[in-house]
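Q: Structure tokens for this one, please.
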Amino acid sequence: MKKFVLLLFPVLCFSSLHAQLERKPANTELPVELTFHAPRHINLATVEPLENKTFHLGIMHTFGTVDGGLESLFGLDNGANIQIVLEYGLSERLSLGASRSSRDKVYYAFGRYHLLRQMQDNSMPLSLSVMAGAGVITGNYDFLGAAEPDFSDRQVYSAQVMLARKFSDKFSFQVTPMLAVFSNPLSIYSIQSREDWYGGLGLSGKIRLSPKTSLTLQGIPGLHASAETNYGLGVDIEAGGHVFQLYLVTSQMLNEPYLLAGDNGQPLDGFRFGFNVNRVFAPW
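A: Here is the predicted structure, written as tokens:
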């Protein structure tokens, strides 16, 4: 038996050494994951892609200003702007989606394309995505009679570039130049002014507090004549396959054109409570 063990020992050592020599090194040539918790970060779209043949369902709410106190339950009694977003990943890079917002009853269709992905080996140091969309305002303005806007007066468009980097497991940041166009910016719409073009610069930050919880920050300074900055502060929580986003914002607007053209308010005028529910799932 001892002779058998002595004969077998070199064979086992050689096999183990050979296996170690054959073992492949860890693959760092992979994209960075979870720059943000979801395709939406407070109000703004992110560089976070959808996997092929998966859906993202987002349900977004913002309420009245919190300065009403308990009488209005900190704005919850003052009406909500609600948006439902559904987006489908056609590939690892391209996704198409649609949304409906209750303010002015805007239906909006959009596409996101991920041009660059930040790599773990830093061969590509950042992620770059583009997004563009078009929508129609479907609110009922019968009370205007002959002056009721027709279809050509109700069209809205937007485009944006999303540039982001995950600096560490604790911190991610995104810069988003944005542009919105209204075919006829009528005063009956929930927008600030009668300008056709609106520009802005979205700023998104994520500070991870725990493996499933992050502090979130948002700023959208406008670049047009009547610009106001949309501020946001919140928390993202991953739970049971969902990402819950709770936040305070100065604007009640939710879709991309209205984030630039709508009344963004000021912190001294009162923040608004809002929350999003995000779910990514595969139908088959």
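A few notes: The two ends are 57 Å apart (CA to CA). The longest strand covers residues 197-210.
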